[in-house]
UniProtKB/TrEMBL annotation:
It is an enzyme of class 2 (transferase). This is Protoheme IX farnesyltransferase. The gene is ctaB. Its EC number is 2.5.1.141. It is a multi-pass membrane protein. GO terms for cellular component: plasma membrane. Pfam families: UbiA.
């Protein structure tokens, strides 16, 4: 070691990065990404065009990376309100494990990578759609809607509903009635799912200044809208069977899931104002996740059965 090396200043502990690989994985919102992968794969599988398996896998990877990029950009911008809510306070940016600048650069780099990868693996229409989806979630929803309107979830929910359309476009280079129905299922599912969460996280959103519907319109108005959306969602969930691109097994499962969703939503509707336990809302929130995964998983099973019989 030279004299210069020996006298080199040691960086203070605060200046040393505390980031670990798991922090960057958390920036990607893995649970949201798993839903994106499921719905994008479903959109790709129900398409009438069958991609080469390798290109299909790369396309789904690109869509997953795009979803992660949107999540990182969301965490970058929302770090201030994330720090105020118990549900999000331990995320990497508000805790300082990842700096805001790093999260922003990470999100932008992944955005570019995902769009280019999808364009090269499938087609540039799908890649452009993916770019628009990232922009919609990061800019239109996160920056433009979330803090300024109680309808943030309704409009912003489109971003979470686009992945099956992107998957379908990756296979076909376009869109169709089938992909639009998949979009509508997620789009109509999003408000009752998140408003149920908002009911039992009312104080969190209030302290962070996010105008979720329960904070602005009140609990009763929120419960009514949850039930209204559920009434529309249940038949739309059965639509793939009614339109003939899903079989009887899907028709039965989707009908039973839809009726159970309505049952949970009705119990929420009948809740008393000021119910601090919010058990019905918590049950609806939990079941809503099972509902969406169940529908799309059944579509994949149905498609596999069809391909097996047809093959």
């Amino acid at each position: 070691m030279t004299l210069v090396d020996a006298q080199a200043p040691i960086a203070p502990r605060e200046a040393i990065s505390l980031s670990e690989p798991r922090d960057f994985i958390e920036l990607l919102k893995p649970r949201v990404m798993s839903l994106v992968i499921l719905t994008a794969v479903t959109g790709l599988v129900v398409a009438p065009v069958h991609m080469h398996p390798m290109l299909a896998a790369i396309s789904i990877l690109a869509i997953a990376i795009g979803a992660g990029a949107a999540g990182a950009l969301n965490m970058w911008y929302d770090a201030d309100i994330d720090a105020m809510m118990t549900r999000t306070a331990r995320r990497p940016v508000p805790t300082g494990r990842v700096t805001g600048e790093t999260a922003l650069a990470f999100g932008l780099a992944l955005s570019l990578l995902s769009v280019c990868l999808l364009g090269l693996a499938s087609n540039w229409f799908a890649a452009g759609f993916l770019a628009f989806t990232i922009f919609f979630y990061a800019v239109i929803y996160t920056i433009g809607l979330k803090r300024f309107t109680p309808q943030n979830i309704v409009i912003g929910g489109a971003a979470g509903a686009f992945p099956p359309m992107v998957g379908y476009a990756a296979a076909t280079g376009g869109l169709s009635v089938e992909s639009t129905i998949l979009f509508l299922i997620i789009f109509l599912w999003t408000p009752p799912h998140f408003w149920a969460l908002a009911l039992f996280k009312l104080r969190d959103y209030g302290s962070a200044g996010v105008p979720m519907l329960p904070n602005v319109a009140g609990e009763r108005a929120t419960r009514i809208q949850i039930f209204a959306y559920s009434l529309v969602l249940a038949p739309i969930g059965v639509a793939p069977f009614l339109f003939g691109y899903a079989g009887p097994a899907y028709g039965v499962v989707s009908t039973l899931l839809g009726l159970n969703f309505l049952r949970h939503a009705f119990v929420v509707l009948k809740m008393a104002d000021g119910d601090e336990k919010m058990i019905p809302a918590k049950k609806l929130f939990g079941f809503s996740i099972l509902y969406l995964f169940g529908l799309f998983a059944m579509l994949l099973v149905d498609a596999a059965i069809t391909m097996t019989i047809g093959g």
